[in-house]
Amino acid sequence: MFTSPGDNPAHRTINIDNPDTLFFAGDIHGHIHLLKKAMDKAGFRPESGHKIILCGDVVDGHRGSTQAVAFLHHEYVDSVLGNHDVMMLNEAPKCDEKTYRIIADYFSHDNAVWQLKEYIRGNYRFVMEKDFVPLPQIIEQDRDFLRWVANDGDWYFRCGYGEAKLALRKLQEANLPNTIEIKTPEGNIGVVHAAVPRLDWQALRSKRDVADNDDSLWARRRLIAYQEGKISSDDFRDIEGVDALVLGHSNVKPGEICVINNSWYLDTNTKSGNMPCVIRASDILAGKKPG
Question: What pTM was estimated for this model as a whole?
Answer without folding.
Answer: 0.93
